[in-house]
Target: Amino acid ABC transporter ATP-binding protein
Amino acid sequence: MLIYDKVRKKYGNFTALDGVSLNVNAGEVVCLIGPSGSGKSTLLRCTNALETLDGGEISFESRPLPKTEPEMRKVRQRMGMVFQSFELFPHKTALENVAMGLTTVRKMGAEEAHKRATALLTKVGLADKTANYPANLSGGQQQRVAIARALAMEPHVMLFDEPTSALDPETVGEVLSVMRTLADEGMTMVVVTHEMSFARRVANWVVVFERGQLLEEGPPQQIFEAP
Ligand code: ADP
Ligand code: ADP
Model:
């Protein structure tokens, strides 16, 4: 579904990605792990063209990522992105945050959009919080709204950039559990995370980054078990 071929990315003289090649197959959960600053987030941001490449190529669903912004915007609609910092609209309720893409991008009627948004908020365990504004939700709840918002667009792949790193420890589990449910349903997911137990239990494939390169990759039992 995603093919990275010798991807290179530089920031000035600093090489953030130094020839990264990787396959993400449909229905798989691929976890990117490794020290801070090793290039994991950069790879995700290159995937949805928030960053441009300095070399190599990324293909999504058998086509190289387009070079122009209007074309890329269409491709991005098939990618769901979840950030560390939630990025919800503060002046919209949970329901409005989830429904917004449906009414604006998909041109869905308000009633249908609200129905769908309600179903998605129920799916992430927030049926009783649809009218809450982000300020009146915990970090874990806000992140679940962000996941529901991404799912509303029916993405073919979900990209998670340290989705639990900004959360209070007691709410990390509820977000990981929603992610695990998605994985069990067959969603293709690329997850940058420091949650090793999630990587060990949920990932099909674990990729260890170091200084912009892949140090190691393999199934979790290979990466995490002593030789
Ligand atoms: P190559 O030697 O061609 O680089 P890979 O390391 O990509 O091969 O793959 C080696 C094996 O691991 C293959 O059987 C391949 O199907 C499998 N594999 C590669 N990438 C993934 C992935 N993201 N998830 C699961 N299996 C994978
Ligand atoms: P990770 O996700 O593994 O923590 P990142 O991909 O965020 O790593 O960053 C890789 C490296 O690239 C880091 O050293 C970081 O400081 C650098 N970097 C990331 N974004 C920028 C930027 N916009 N400008 C300059 N350097 C950057």
Observations:
- The longest helix spans residues 169-184.
- The helical segments are 40-47, 69-76, 94-104, 110-123, 139-152, 169-184, 196-202, 220-224.
- The two ends are 31 Å apart (CA to CA).
